[in-house]
Known about the structure:
Blueprint: E1 3-7, E2 10-14, H1 17-27, H2 33-38, E3 41-45, E4 50-51, E5 84-85, E6 93-96, H3 104-112, H4 124-157, E7 159-164, E8 167-173, H5 195-210, E9 216-219, H6 221-228, H7 231-238, E10 261-266, E11 269-273, E12 277-279, E13 285-287, E14 294-297, E15 303-307, E16 322-329, E17 332-339, E18 342-345, E19 352-355
Parallel strand pairs: 3-15, 9-11
Antiparallel strand pairs: 1-2, 4-5, 6-17, 7-8, 9-14, 10-11, 12-13, 14-19, 15-18, 16-17
Helix pairs in contact: 1-4
Amino acid sequence: MSITVDIKGQPVKLLDTRELAIFHNKTTIVSTWILDTFFPNRRVFNGTEVAMGDLDTNTPIAPLVAPSVQGRVITDQAEYNVKHVKPAYLKPSGYVTPQNVNDLALLGTMQQAGVVNNTVNMSGAEKMRIAQISRFTRNRESITNFNVFMAIEVLLKGKVTFASKDFPEITVDYGRHAEMAFTPTTKWDATDATPVTDIKNMNARLVEHGGTDAVAILTTSKVFGNMAKNDEFQENFVKPLGANAANPLTIGSITGGQEAKYRGELDGVQVWTLDATYRNEKGVVTRYIGEKAFYMISDMSGFLCHCGLQNLDAMEQPLDVYDYIVVEKDPSGVKLISESSPLAVPSNVNGVCGGEAFLTA
Length: 361
């Protein structure tokens, strides 16, 4: 059901949040591969905290500090093995204005859906509806991007730091064992590198501290390319297959793209490369994982938890996202707001071994 607002004395029908969600599902392009692959479990908590004891984790959870929903620093003494952790609280918002309606792909989709009659001589109401969808998509994607970033930090580092201009820097640390950080003695772009030996050593650490063997490798195209052509790798995985055998991994292009690439298996361990990038708050293009990174992973059962939202209309429901529209008189405007309270939690905090320095250049 649409909503009606008064603009310059005239009633203008705008889309409600349910209609906006439908159009958002048709236009979103944010990749959630990291979340879907390594944090497939979803849990909700009605309160404002994640109850760690209710999660089926394989190791004790040891956050050093946790963020409150207001982003205030917790001044109490940090303790290990706490039972509750407060998640981040996200509240992206923005005003709807018809001045900059320039997303041609979105305009085409909206014309096909009957939201606008044409994309040339749009009415003020049509421009407002297009601006609504654009703002809604921006809010939703900012939350998805945050969740992906948080999941990567938790997966690769065993901790995550929340920081913005609105509140001080706060870290949730799950207490990963120090030996899970691995740097090869000889970098893999050297002629005498021993990547197979290094991989075996990393897997031994996974078994010792996490209790299970690796099931996946996550690296970059650059590291993957150096590993695949290495002499020790060739001796162990290519030559035993015969003189005319192909490499067991899909070499293909050594360049990346925004999607993860499946390269094959090594002794039953999936090999994935990820070269995706994002723009940080300063507009600088940044990689999700470092160009020289390599990680062996046994934990593919992490959790993305959501807690109750501190909104009177949501009434502490543990929704992944709650969207609403505010029509303001002072200052005058239509504002779209989205709220979410997520926290990524590893199933096995010692289920990842690796690092960011496997190449020299």
